[in-house]
Amino acid sequence: QMIFGTIFLAIVVATLSTILGTAGAVGTFYSKKNVQRVVELGNQIPVVNADVVTGFSICILLIVFFNMEKESFIPLLIGQMTLCTPFVYLQVMPRLQQMDPHLYEAALDLGATPFQALRKIIIPEIRPGMISGFILAFTLSIDDFAVTLFTQGTEGLQTLSTYIYADARKGGLTPELRSLSTIIFAVVLLLLIIVNIRAKRAAKRKQAL
Q1: Full-model pTM
Q2: What is the SS3 assignment for the chain?
Q3: What pLDDT does residue 78 have?
Q4: Cα end-to-end span (Å), the chain
Q5: Which of 12, 35, 68, 165 qualifies as a FRET site for 93, CA 20 to 30 Å off?
Q6: Is 146 exposed, middle or buried (CB count within 10 Å of its CB: 0-12, 13-18, 19+)?
Q7: Mean pLDDT in each 10-residue stretch from start to end of the chain (209 residues)?
């Protein structure tokens, strides 16, 4: 149950972070320079900040100030999204910067609606960055400990990282946990290799065209 809960949380966090990070990157890319500087500065705070500080701050904000239940799933979800979304933003923004900025305007001039231009022009161009951001967010969610520890509450969802920490305090990791950690590492490494290979192939196709 703990493993399925961790994977389910990682999928939800990665999906929401990918949507939010992609929307933020697209909106920032087509905004004024001053807005871009402010958003990029704010995006760097969770990246540069220590995870302990981020987790503690979210814990105080949601549980103390907003009086949210400690057993709720929401603080943990928001906490991990705060950690993962900036990394999705950093994966998508370079793809937007490599894209021809006039493609979107050309689609609008040809009669496409903003949503159609986003779906048919922008998203296909930035899809590799979105996939990389999703995998990175998924990995960060599984790996995260500090933010999870502060936001999961006393009776909240126990993830793999907090379970390993509790098990290690008892005197060492069990053989099952060691095997599981190895399997997770191998799966994540395989996904990253596949994504990098696909990205290189897509780059070669564009150069050939």
Answers
A1: 0.81
A2: CHHHHHHHHHHHHHHHHHHHHHHHHHHHHCCCHHHHHHHHHHHHHHHHCCHHHHHHHHHHHHHHHCCCCCCCCHHHHHHHHHHHHHHHHHHHHHHHHHCCCHHHHHHHHCCCCHHHHHHHHHHHHHHHHHHHHHHHHHHHHHHCCHHHHHHCCCCCCCCHHHHHHHHHHCCCCCHHHHHHHHHHHHHHHHHHHHHHHHHHHHHHHHHHC
A3: 87
A4: 49
A5: 12
A6: middle
A7: 81 94 90 87 83 81 72 80 91 87 82 85 87 88 83 69 73 69 79 76 72
Question: Length of the chain in residues, anyone?
Answer: 209
How many other β-carbons are positioned within 10 Å of the β-carbon of residue 113?
A: 10
Q: Give the amino acid at 27.
A: G
